[in-house]
Design brief:
37% helix; alpha/beta; 2 domains; 18% strand
């Protein structure tokens, strides 16, 4: 039955031998890549944005297609559900029109209906793959008539194994008197009624103003050099933040994260801070203290994970 198809059964299913993989945003790209890597020879790729770089880094050179030149020759589609691109939605609509079996991947915990809405109409896939219990509960509640399968998050397991092994090596080394904070930069698509204040800068000001209270509360050790490592978001140019960096206090060592892989950054992290980033979930899975630093004026953090710290609840 198509409603029971998983990445693992798809690898040996002879009914699906030409699989179109379409992705844009990083979250779904990571999930899909680690689900299809064992049957990569069956796949044809329609990739854009961060997804193209992620697949290229993993597989090396890949042939990237225009979907309308190959989709009719495919017997299955696997698509992401990006927030910042319409290409996956267009591919799903084309697949539905031509009766091609369609699988969508949800990698987050918000805006589920909107991710399948285009020009005012909703087109759902034939099957939805989700990767954790939170997403399964949300999606089954919102789409009670849609086939939904909870699939092990192979990317998270892969990243977790890398990070934990490397952190064991790191902590076996002589003590380094420095506390490293990874700050996950993220574009904010609402101004939170702040008028002329940039919400990204407002949040950074809020966060840095609370470092001393976090020291007092014991979340950051005292008498230790603090290094804040800013990790850029793939959808945002790091130069956007230059005015803020230029104004930052000299009390902190400031660096820009140049690691291409998230796990390389998490290996050295003592605290990971962000807004609503999926990378916070990865950090929590690696047993790294993680905190949403959304200020009180911002909407509630969308991450449902109970172990996530929230700065505005602490200070």
């Amino acid at each position: 039955m198509t409603s029971s198809i998983t990445p693992f059964s798809l690898a040996t299913n002879n009914n699906y031998n030409r699989i179109l993989v379409c992705a844009h945003d990083a979250g779904s790209a990571h999930l899909i890549l680690h689900w299809i890597k064992h049957f990569r020879q069956k796949c044809l790729f329609v990739l854009s944005g961060p997804a193209f770089d992620i697949f290229s880094d993993y597989f090396g050179s890949i042939l990237n297609h225009q979907f309308d030149t190959i989709l009719e020759t495919c017997d299955c589609v696997i698509s992401g559900t990006s927030w910042s691109s319409d290409i996956e939605d267009i591919v799903r609509r084309f697949a539905k029109k031509h009766n091609i079996f369609s699988i969508a991947v949800v990698d987050h915990w918000v805006n589920y209906v909107e991710r399948f809405t285009f020009s005012g109409s909703i087109v759902l896939p034939d099957l939805l793959w989700v990767s954790d219990n939170y997403a399964f509960e949300i999606s089954t509640r919102l789409f009670p008539n849609l086939a939904i399968i909870l699939v092990e998050n192979s990317w998270l397991v892969h990243t977790q194994n890398h990070v934990l092994c490397e952190r064991i090596k790191r902590f076996s080394q002589p003590f380094v008197d420095k506390f490293r904070i990874i700050y996950l930069l993220e574009p904010i698509r609402s101004n939170w009624n702040l008028l002329d204040v940039c919400p990204e800068f407002y949040t950074l000001d809020y966060f840095t103003s609370k470092i001393q209270p976090l020291i007092s509360l014991g979340y950051i050790p005292s008498n230790t050099e603090i290094e804040i490592i800013f990790r850029p978001h793939p959808a945002q140019n790091i130069d956007f933040y230059n005015p803020f960096f230029a104004s930052m206090s000299s009390d902190f060592l400031i660096t820009i994260d140049s690691n291409s892989n998230l796990y390389q950054s998490l290996v050295i992290a003592d605290l990971v801070c962000g807004l609503n980033s999926q990378a916070l979930v990865v950090a929590m899975a690696c047993n790294i203290q993680s905190m949403s630093v959304l200020p009180p004026v911002a909407p509630t953090c969308i991450l449902p994970h109970s172990q996530l710290l929230h700065l505005k609840s602490l200070v």
